Structures are given as structure tokens and as C-alpha cells.
Structure to design on (258 residues):
């Protein structure tokens, strides 16, 4: 639920919740789940780049830990972040849990998501079950689970956020993509803040657009503003991501945190 496609490659004849459709417009291929709302986008001429601003914002987890070795993602979509991490973060081993087999098929056939290898495992399964069975394991946990109706109710309860914290290692980083205009956004944010004892940052990436929310099991030295700015400058040497601008926005919108 990010922006509207100009036209669809095919009509949305199946309007059920599990419909998976693809469109193209102005050199950008987009994924839709049961509606014309764009869930994921890829520039065909540069398929491993991060086309949507919110995906680049989510990659700010690289600012907060210099030595990330593993990442768990719940929700594949078009695989933008999965592809990017696989292509440009070779030190990170990624596990992605996706409930809908149609999404996995389309992500690989239309959006260039790689096959499983020693650094990537896409698992067809229930993310809630996976989290419950894998406590104290993820250094980064990304939740980007939308369907045609928005974020599923089971992925925004207090119990869910608590489970996410349990899945993280002691200095793990939680990241979730939320929709800024969601009428329950403040409720979700309060729950995340409760789970992570207030150690939470918000990063809006559009108007009203997506908001990346970061939660920390413990506040590390890498979250000092001076360290973040230096880290951002270093990352921009190897990533086409506006990390410095994101750090500026984090400082502006989260003054109490810094």
C-alpha cells in the first residue's frame, strides 16, 4: 500500500485476498495483492536497486550495527530488500518467511529474487510459527507483512511485538514497515515502545507514506549521533542509499532519543 499503478499488465480478475498481480509503467514493474495498490516495485533496468524510498529507509539498520551477520524477514513481497541484501551485503545471511506460495513464485519469476543458496533461504510458511520456534536468534528482524487489507491483525498485537523481541539476540534490531495514514498507527507504535522499553526510532519516508520503525533491545554506543553520521558517510561510499539524509531525519523526528 504505497502508491497507485498507472496501469496493469492484466486486469485484476481475481480480487480475493491471495490474488497476486504484476504491472509495468515507465520502466517500473510493480507487485499488487488483490488491488491496484503497489506493494513492491522494481526498476527493470536496475532490478537489484531499491526503487521505493521506504525500502532504502529500512536499510538504515546498517547504521546501528557494523557487524550484522544474520537477518530474518517476515513477508517477501517483490523481494526488494531480500535482493538488495543478497547483492550488496554479502556478510549477511538472510532467512525470509512467506506464507503465500504465489508471492514466492512471482518474486522469483518476475522480480529476480535469487534461488536459495548458502546466504539466502526463502521459506514458505507461517511467520508467527517461525518466530515462536526461533527465539534469541535474529540480529535483525524485519516485518514487512501486508495483504490487500493492510497489515494483518496478528502482526500488530502486543503479544506479537513481544514475540519479535524474544526472537532477537540481546543486542538485536527490530524493523517494521507501517503505513502512516493507518488510523491505528499510534496504537501500534505505543505497543512497540512498550515492548522495547521506549528504545524506538521512527523514520517517515513519504507523505503520508510508509514509516520505518526501529526497536532496540538495548541502546548501543553506535546510536550516538556523531557515530551515526560517520557511519552514514561510510555506507554511502558503497551503497546508493541516502543514509546521511536519513540520519538528519532521524535526529529531527526523534529528539528525545538522542
Amino acid at each position: 500500500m504505497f502508491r497507485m499503478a498507472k496501469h496493469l499488465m492484466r486486469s485484476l480478475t481475481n480480487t480475493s485476498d491471495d490474488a497476486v498481480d504484476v504491472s509495468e509503467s515507465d520502466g517500473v514493474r510493480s507487485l499488487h495483492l488483490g488491488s491496484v495498490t503497489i506493494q513492491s516495485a522494481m526498476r527493470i533496468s536496475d532490478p537489484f536497486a531499491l526503487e521505493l524510498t521506504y525500502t532504502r529507509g529500512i536499510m538504515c539498520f546498517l547504521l546501528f550495527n557494523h557487524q550484522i551477520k544474520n537477518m530474518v524477514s517476515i513477508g517477501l513481497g517483490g523481494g526488494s530488500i531480500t535482493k538488495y541484501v543478497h547483492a550488496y551485503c554479502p556478510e549477511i545471511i538472510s532467512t525470509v518467511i512467506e506464507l503465500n506460495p504465489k508471492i514466492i513464485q512471482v518474486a522469483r519469476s518476475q522480480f529476480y529474487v535469487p534461488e536459495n543458496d548458502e546466504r539466502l533461504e526463502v521459506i514458505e510458511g507461517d511467520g508467527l510459527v517461525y518466530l515462536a520456534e526461533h527465539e534469541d536468534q535474529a540480529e535483525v528482524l524485519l516485518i514487512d507483512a501486508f495483504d490487500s487489507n493492510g497489515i494483518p491483525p496478528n502482526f500488530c498485537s502486543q503479544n506479537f511485538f513481544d514475540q519479535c523481541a524474544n526472537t532477537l539476540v540481546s543486542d538485536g534490531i527490530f524493523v517494521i514497515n507501517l503505513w502512516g495514514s493507518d488510523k491505528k498507527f499510534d496504537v501500534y507504535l505505543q505497543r512497540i515502545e512498550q515492548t522495547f522499553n521506549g528504545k524506538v526510532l521512527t523514520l517517515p519516508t513519504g507523505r503520508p507514506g510508509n514509516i520505518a520503525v526501529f526497536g532496540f533491545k538495548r541502546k548501543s554506543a553506535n546510536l550516538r549521533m556523531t557515530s551515526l553520521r560517520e557511519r552514514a558517510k561510510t555506507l554511502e561510499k558503497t551503497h546508493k542509499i541516502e543514509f546521511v539524509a536519513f540520519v538528519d531525519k532521524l535526529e529531527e523526528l526523534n529528539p528525545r532519543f538522542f
In short: The radius of gyration is 17 Å. The longest strand covers residues 168-179.
